Amino acid sequence: MVETKKNDDNLMAAVAYLLGVLTGIVVYIMYKDKGNKFVLFHAMQSMILGGALIVCIPILGILGLILGMIPVIGWIIGIVMMLVWFVVMLGMFGLWIFLMYKAYSGEKFKLPIIGNFAEKYAG
Q1: Cβ density class 62-86: b for 16+ within 10 Å, e for less
Q2: Distance in angstroms (rounded) separating the CA atoms of residues 17 and 45
Q3: Interatomic CA distance for residues 16 and 25, integer angstroms
Q4: pLDDT tens-digit profile of 23-51?
């Protein structure tokens, strides 16, 4: 019985990362009253990371568009920014898979800066 409970908690911690902020909020609300700090931590870390991405990705896109308007050098900057964006998105995909794996494995993996906030606000 205890092992099943632990597996369910690990699964819910991994699910918190599935759709970023959306699933983070749902899992946080579901587990808030249960006091499971492991699941709450992962839900909170998912919400903070997803929120940061929601803010940063459009800013990078707008910056790339503005810099891309500069003749000649702007085009080069625009191409470089697209490559950087691609690498960042590829890295975020890898991080997403990694965080779900760590949560499902029962590990409390703290991201730099974000992990400290998640730990503080998860209770």
Answers
A1: eebeebbeeeeebeebbeebeeeee
A2: 8
A3: 8
A4: 999 999 999 988 899 999 999 999 999 99
